[in-house]
Amino acid sequence: MKPRVFSAMQPTADSLQLGNFLGALVEWVKLQDTHDAIYGVVDLHALTVAPEPEVLRRRSRVTAAQFLAAGVDPSRSIVFLQSHVPEHAELAWLLSTFTGMGEAGRMTQFKDKSARVGESGTNVGLFTYPILMAADILLYDTNVVPVGEDQRQHLELSRDLAMRLNARLGEDTVTVPEPHIVKETAKIFDLQEPTKKMSKSFSSPKGIIEILQDPKSVAKNIKAAATDSDAVIAFDRENKAGVSNLLTIYSALDGRSVDQLVADYEGKMYGHLKVDLAEVVVNYLTPIHDAAMEWIESPDRLDAVLADGAERASEIASATLERLYDRVGLLRPSHRR
Fold first, then answer.
1. Which is catalytic among the residues 113, 187, 206, 223?
2. Considering just the CA atoms, what is the radius of gyration of the chain in Å?
3. pLDDT, tens digit, for every residue of 78-128?
4. Is residue 200 among the annotated active site residues?
5. Per residue in 250-309, pLDDT tens?
6. How far apart are CA 175 and CA 322, in angstroms?
7. Known active-site residue 197
8. 206 assigned to active site
9. Domain spanning 4-185+299-336 has what CATH number?
10. Fold of 205-294
């Protein structure tokens, strides 16, 4: 059997941005060839920021549509909405009884997010977010989880909880997940503030490249990207953050190394680089944009894929949860025996 990979994204924006695509989706598509792949839209996690109901519903579909448009194949992978598989929430409760208060309180993302919104804007769901994330992973006996640096601590909690369950309930209770380190070939920064990571939550409209953005708008944002005053095309992350960011994007999409691009643009102006890069980005994203729109404009077809994915995910999840319920001493209903 192939090793199992699980990964997911929150539906917190109307479009994924280029950093999401290059940092996650490209890797997800590759992993389908070597792993039993399960990819989720974690809409329960999104509730921690109190979205409007219709906005959440729309964004959940739009996020799934972009998975499919990017090349996630529902005939080879499970694609589903987290809320369609109730075992996620059930396992999260069980795991919370195995998690110490201090352990949960040390999560860096909780500290950062709660500091931004203050005590009055911080809900318990935000505090227990990493426990639900651990449930997402452990529910599928996941072997590997693609992670970047910002999620490494949460995966460590998942691993700690898995080992704790195995120590208390039997060594084969759950699979201990391993990190699948995603090489940071293209850490994409904000076009207007190139010292900050491009973010669907914190970038301005002019600082971001979105998958579902109008191609003309994409080109306009690239041509208006911040650079510097000396007009020399060189890679220097510290002193030339803007042009370095453009070179990174170019290399990720074009295939040429940054060094080769610098050599190819020697003696040219920033304007040349921006015009060419805009064309590369638009040509790369347009087929993905169009495929995503086809899914979005066919909600019945999209919902059918998600329903099938939920059914397949539930088959795995229910077996895991029943095993755990039995080992912690919960009586199973007679119809499940």
1. 113
2. 22
3. 999 999 999 999 999 999 999 998 887 777 666 666 666 666 667 787 788
4. yes
5. 999 998 999 999 999 999 999 999 999 999 999 999 999 999 999 999 999 999 999 999
6. 15
7. yes
8. no
9. 3.40.50.620
10. Tyrosyl-Transfer RNA Synthetase (1.10.240)
